[in-house]
Design a protein that fits this description.
Order of helices and strands: HHHHHH
Number of helices: 6
Radius of gyration: 21 Å
Shape: elongated
């Protein structure tokens, strides 16, 4: 009886620990919303502060940005398929969809690095003007978040290979998928406010 009590107490403690981690994740998402909200507000203030330097309209290459957007939206879809595979208990399928998501995420980061390199080559750097300073900070912060997500994804795939689907890996996959969708939503705002409004 005492053994059963210890076991149930341990189970309750584990569930409490898991709920705390879920709460911690949501606090992180809220602070991230505040961070991006601040960066968007700064960008809005600096939107026309070109200081005689090049403008977004002159340097933005929309076809490449549209390709990046398509890649990130597709990766959000594949991360959703990973969660579906997890819910069916198919660990190999789950890892495969996470791998596809990671490859798409990496392609997005590579395109962003190429864009930054092109802009700097054209004379647009953090120091050029208030506009470019706000641009690089906002877009770069999003890119950094995607990069962090990729490291998280690779670590999780390794964990899934070793441990399979359990309560801990299930929570981690769910959190990662929510994080990835969140970055997708931020990018849609970014694409609209920075790029579409920038070329108008």
């Amino acid at each position: 009886m005492a053994n059963h009590h210890d076991h149930s107490h341990g189970h309750d403690h584990h569930e409490e620990h898991e709920q705390l981690k879920v709460l911690g994740f949501w606090i992180f998402v809220v602070t991230d919303c505040i961070l991006f909200g601040t960066l968007f507000a700064t960008y809005a203030v600096m939107m026309y502060s070109f200081a005689g330097g090049p403008t977004g309209k002159e340097l933005f290459e929309l076809p490449g940005i549209i390709a990046s957007t398509f890649i990130l939206l597709t990766s959000s879809f594949t991360s959703g398929l990973a969660v579906l595979a997890m819910n069916k208990g198919k660990v190999k399928e789950l890892i495969a969809w996470l791998a596809v998501t990671a490859v798409l995420g990496l392609a997005f980061v590579v395109l962003e690095v190429n864009e930054f390199t092109h802009l700097m080559h054209e004379g647009a750097t953090m120091a050029t003007s208030g506009f470019w300073s706000a641009f690089f900070t906002l877009v770069g912060t999003h890119g950094l978040h995607v990069s962090v997500g990729l490291f998280w994804m690779v670590a999780l795939m390794m964990q899934l290979k070793r441990r399979g689907i359990n309560a801990v890996t299930r929570r981690k996959v769910t959190n990662l998928s929510l994080y990835w969708h969140f970055l997708d939503v931020v990018w849609i705002f970014l694409f609209t406010v920075v790029y579409l409004m920038g070329v108008m």
